[in-house]
């Protein structure tokens, strides 16, 4: 029986594996927990590092994941391989014979979001990329200029976006509109009738006020909340126990214990919010006082 060894070191990345297995580790401090390893893995503590020896069929720094290739998910005889990144996200790939479809790419863990550039992680389905990005982990910028997006202008590619420099008398995001057709739908014309430009309402821009300004470009949403653009405004879609204008507040569930806070991060957040109140310690709060939004 093979044991897959995964190491933690204060300064090194250490890799070790039996044949046909992939070992993974990340930089970490020395770990002293006696039951760190899962699924029968054995914790070995040595001078400057700790490591989990995983039983065959399990992977991950804590042996917490099943080897996704033990039961080959690849179709039509494809060869299964996988990768684990530093956030413990597993990506599965199939090597296919020429002309055969055997792909079964997937992400098997979203414990820490492996998706880059604000991509949304969905277990098994993979990363859902926001506009302008692509790739397994949304790591690749899409060059929109390769798709001739500017009808009457020059395209400039940006990371995650693009812009068009329109030729004379053309306007719009893709330079498809002629200035003679400008209706100033989201604004009004200047008093000078010879000037076809528009005075735009708040939240709009462009020669004819046709472009809604993306207020999410400089949003203040916290705790991995999703920003939803509106007209001259935006909202934050909160997750978990977070809420508030920017998802900055935490809803604390006490579980009938007036002095026990079971989530360290929640306790730290709540204590910081009430530190200027009459209470000097979270443990002194009564049940009715444990609520969010108690800033003075």
From TrEMBL:
Q: Name one GO molecular function term.
A: calcium ion binding
Which PANTHER family does the protein's record reference? CRUMBS FAMILY MEMBER
- Per the record, what is one GO cellular component? membrane
Signal peptide from the UniProt entry: 1-16
| Alphabetical list of CDD domains matching this protein | EGF_CA (cd00054)
Please name the SUPFAM superfamilies in this protein's record: EGF/Laminin (SSF57196)
Domain EGF-like per the UniProt entry, residue ranges: 26-64, 65-103, 106-139, 141-176, 212-248
Q: Can you say what this protein is called?
A: Neurogenic locus Notch protein
| Keywords linked to the UniProt accession | Developmental protein, Disulfide bond, EGF-like domain, Repeat, Signal
Report the record's disulfide bonds.
54-63, 129-138, 145-155, 166-175, 238-247
